[in-house]
Each structure stands twice: as C-alpha cells, then as structure tokens.
C-alpha cells in the first residue's frame, strides 16, 4: 500500500473509531490503542489515573513492540474493517 494512501486510510479509520458511540470490547480497544500509539510514534507513558488500566495499556504496547509504523497503521485499519465495522452491521 502506498504511504500516502496508507496514511489517508489510517486517518479515516481513526476518525471512524473516534465517532463510534457503541461500546467496544476491551481487548479490541487495547489493540487499537497500541497500534495507534506506534503509528503515531507516541511512546509516552499511558496517562490513565488507574494503575490497572495503565498496566493493560503498557502490556498491549509490549505485545506490539516489534511492529513497524506502517504495519501498525495497516493492522489498525484491518481491525477497524474486520472488527469494529462488523459489530455495527
């Protein structure tokens, strides 16, 4: 996938998730979180006030640590298309 098209599709997928109002499974949210952070080169400490949530977020990032930026975008898009949009149907 070309880089410009990939970025465009990634932004569209992020916008779709941000506009999504129904609850999503926690495991899906954690995967989306990790891929989003990697795709945006944002490796700052999870900012939740709840230590357990921070631990889950940190674990999701650790599990995805060998994913490249482009691959993170692709995986985020794939999750949105296969999991989030499937829920809406």
UniProtKB/TrEMBL annotation:
One of its GO terms (molecular function) is fatty-acyl-CoA binding. Residues 6-89 form the ACB domain. SUPFAM superfamilies: Acyl-CoA binding protein. InterPro entries: Acyl-CoA-binding_protein (IPR000582), Acyl-CoA-binding_sf (IPR035984), FERM/acyl-CoA-bd_prot_sf (IPR014352). It comes from the Bacteria. Pfam families: ACBP. This is Acyl-CoA-binding protein. The lineage of its organism: Bacteria, Pseudomonadati, Bacteroidota, Flavobacteriia, Flavobacteriales.
